[in-house]
Design goal:
The protein is an alpha/beta fold and 356 residues long. It contains 12 helices and 14 strands. The chain is globular. The N and C termini lie far apart (62 Å).
């Protein structure tokens, strides 16, 4: 490790963003001593799969959804401390996949000898290599691939997000899941912001319809604020207050995951588990689940979509006006496709509807 050049990856946002970053991490570890500047949950999410990563914990004040520029509330001492910590490492290269001048300025302050990113609003001043995504936009995975090519990382052109779910085992989750005898379908109702959530009554209708047509056991995970609690009665198993390792353990043990546009969506996809995701204000071209096993359900009902969680209305019409009856055919077809492709094995979900 000491003989490898040092690479700093800046990814200061959520669990889903960190999961997408593994497309680069997975290949970069062979050629670089990889350092990750990220929130503390990055260690719990990635250390089991990538034990060689060096983590630098930092919660950037500008990652808050609201009041991010109340400079008088910033922890300036922590910012100065992390800059000093990064400078001591004497990085050979630093990268950020986000078109974000704050990341680029922080990379410049780190003193990295090569800085690569996607400039915006004049932030190219802080970069040595200025990359640009195509006009039609591409997925964040493709942005990581492009950065990897600039770094000369072998195999990065075919890289994809990867989390080794077998390395995340918690006694709590294993004991709970071992009581279930049928294929596990997990519904995770978390979302980074409330505007990404489909109404609970809509979820109830869909889950009841699924129960009528397919044979499985339903594990339901509520959001941190209790969203989804009203659906407890229709689940076989209701779980809340998961830590990150337990979340990975549960998702990796599932046969299918239904969710919102969220971190758990990306974690499940990176574990190789098919997902069905309800999308509202997010940008699917950047943030859809990566791979061909997945189905997104989305309608351009609102002319301002994508608004990236800053909805201008009293309710998120992009989701509240997406009725269960309209979403159901796509969800049903994806389940049937999973069965037909036998991706999940012969013992997986079987339709309860008899063939004529």
């Amino acid at each position: 490790m000491a003989n490898k050049p040092k690479l700093l990856i800046c990814e200061l946002w959520g669990i889903g963003d960190l999961t997408l970053a593994t497309a680069l991490v997975d290949k970069a570890c062979a050629q670089f001593e990889v350092h990750l500047l990220a929130k503390p949950h990055a260690r719990e999410l990635l250390a089991a799969t990538y034990p060689d990563i060096v983590f630098h914990d930092y919660i950037a004040p500008w990652t808050a959804h609201y009041r991010k520029y109340h400079l008088w509330n910033w922890h300036w001492a922590k910012l100065i401390k992390i800059i000093a910590e990064l400078r001591r490492e004497q990085f050979d290269a630093a990268i950020s996949v986000r078109p974000d001048p704050r990341d680029h300025f922080l990379m410049w302050l780190s003193g990295a000898r090569l800085r690569i990113g996607f400039p915006v609003k004049g932030s190219g001043f802080f970069l040595h290599k200025k990359l640009h995504e195509p006009a039609e936009k591409w997925h964040r995975v493709e942005s990581y691939r492009e950065i990897g090519k600039q770094l000369g990382i072998a195999g990065v052109a075919e890289a994809h997000p990867r989390i080794d779910g077998a390395k995340y085992r918690s006694q709590r989750i294993e004991e709970i899941l071992n009581t279930l005898v049928k294929p596990i379908v997990t519904v995770h109702l978390g979302a980074g912001q409330p505007v990404r959530r489909w109404p609970q009554e809509y979820w109830k209708q869909i889950l009841e319809q699924m129960r009528q047509e397919f044979d499985f056991q339903l594990v339901l995970v509520a959001d941190q604020d209790g969203f989804g609690e009203s659906l407890r009665a229709i689940s076989d198993l209701f779980i809340d207050k998961l830590n990150v390792s337990e979340l990975v353990n549960l998702l990796a043990r599932s046969k299918v995951v239904l969710c919102h546009d969220s971190g758990p969506m990306h974690v499940a996809a990176a574990c190789g588990v098919p997902t069905i995701a309800l999308f509202g204000p997010g940008e699917t071209r950047w943030f859809r689940p990566w791979g061909d096993k997945h189905q997104i359900v989305i309608r351009d009902i609102c002319p301002y979509r994508p608004c990236f969680d800053f909805c201008r209305f009293s309710e998120n019409y992009c989701l509240t006006r997406l009725a269960p009856a309209e979403a159901w055919p796509e969800i049903e077809a994806h389940f049937e496709g999973i069965i037909a492709s036998q991706r999940l094995g012969k013992s997986t979900i079987q339709s309860n509807v008899l063939e004529p």
